[in-house]
Write a structure and sequence with these properties.
Helices cover 41% and strands 17% of the residues. By secondary structure, the chain is α/β, with parallel strands linked by helices. Strands 3-2-1-4-5-6-7 form a seven-stranded parallel sheet, sandwiched between helices. Strands 10-9-8-11-12-13 form a six-stranded parallel sheet, sandwiched between helices. Helix 2 crosses helix 3 and helix 3 packs across helix 5 (127-139). The protein starts with a strand and ends with a helix.
């Protein structure tokens, strides 16, 4: 009999957590696991990428909090062996749905998407939500952290026993990355030095700093052109466009919005830049390292700095410092990464071992 795995997400918009779940579902051994994906709302650009082996249940509500009663009913009827969630708000909602189901005793696995130190110090989680998240983590059988630093922070800020927190990197689908990266390259001006950055347009991703950095670069060399890939779900793009206009570089930056295939951009760029203020362990950066792109990243987490230094995989700039970021991009020009793919394949094995140990 297969192990029934129930995964809860709000929707299938093009964010990092949703992509992690899709990768997990593609690589899952469906002969061993029956996967059920429960969505608050069956919406989002990534819906069509859900593997056909996965059964999708639409709760038909707009927000995560309104999902709780219907999610509870689904858990009662499905009787899953494992429940899994990967965002702070869905972790809390799944915990609350399980409270009133004493007869249901699935293995509970939560993934922490970002640094607790950052989302707590920046007041991105309210006091009551933090209380509920701590209760959720204490009820869980396992909490997944993407880096050693994140594990330490989860234990410290959420007061958890370290034995409950497992450091497990996000999985990567190498076959899919290779296939999509090999498609026709973007129609870019060959005279340009093309910089690519990717992520939802939010404060976290630091695109405002990157546009300030672009102004520094263009003063040194007018060939630099910035391509930003990512959904503008919060309406922040207009502010960035205005900033670029004020700095005189509006004609040197293009916002591409959500892209189903970011890998062809990664494969063909001259430099990939991670300009984030904070992260867990950024998959886009790892995918660029895998594709042997030139990488410049901010020191948004200790693990980014350590990985780039250890593997000689790129350059590290100070987070929030546009001038230092520009200097590192100038240094990085012409550098191509060479890295042992065994490191990445070990990541996948660790991720699925976490599920298998608990199934």
């Amino acid at each position: 009999m297969r192990t029934k795995l129930l995964i809860f997400l709000q929707n299938m918009t093009g964010g990092g957590a949703e992509r992690v779940v899709l990768t997990m579902l593609r690589l899952l051994d469906h002969s061993r696991f029956e996967a059920v994906l429960v969505l608050s709302s069956r919406t989002g650009q990534l819906l069509e990428d859900i593997p056909p082996e996965v059964r999708v249940i639409d709760l038909g509500v707009a927000t995560t909090s309104r999902s709780i009663p219907r999610l509870r009913s689904v858990i009662r009827s499905e009787s899953p062996d494992i429940v899994f969630s990967t965002l702070l708000r869905t972790n809390i909602a799944l915990y609350l749905a399980l409270i009133a189901l004493p007869a249901q005793k699935p293995t509970i696995i939560f993934r922490s998407p970002n640094s607790p130190r950052q989302y707590i110090s920046r007041s991105h989680i309210r006091t009551f939500s933090r209380f509920l998240l701590e209760r959720a983590y204490r009820r869980a059988h396992l909490v997944l952290a993407q880096t050693p630093e994140m594990k330490d922070e989860i234990c410290r800020y959420h007061r958890l026993n370290p034995n409950k927190v497992l450091m497990v990197p996000n999985p990567m689908d190498f076959a899919k990355i290779d296939s999509l990266a090999a498609q026709n390259p973007p129609d870019w001006d060959p005279r340009d030095t093309n910089i690519v950055s990717a992520g939802r347009i939010t404060e976290q991703k630091g695109f405002d700093v990157l546009i300030d950095c672009l102004a520094h670069l263009v003063r040194a060399n007018s060939s630099y052109f910035l391509h930003i890939i990512g959904e503008d779900s919060l309406g922040e793009q207009a502010k960035l466009e205005l900033r670029a206009q004020e700095l005189g570089v509006r004609d040197r930056v293009k916002f591409w919005g959500f892209q189903r295939n970011p890998y062809v951009f990664f494969k063909n760029c001259d430099i990939f830049v991670l300009s984030s203020r904070w992260e867990g362990m950024p998959n886009a950066m790892l995918e660029n390292i895998y594709l042997e792109s030139t990488v410049v990243a901010t020191d948004c987490t200790e693990s980014v700095s350590r990985l780039l230094a250890r593997e000689n995989a790129g350059y590290v700039a100070r987070s929030g410092d546009a001038d230092d970021l520009a200097q590192k991009i100038l240094l990085a020009s012409g550098h191509r990464t060479k890295i042992d793919a065994k490191m990445f394949r070990k990541r996948n094995r660790e991720f699925f071992e976490a599920l298998q140990v608990r199934s």
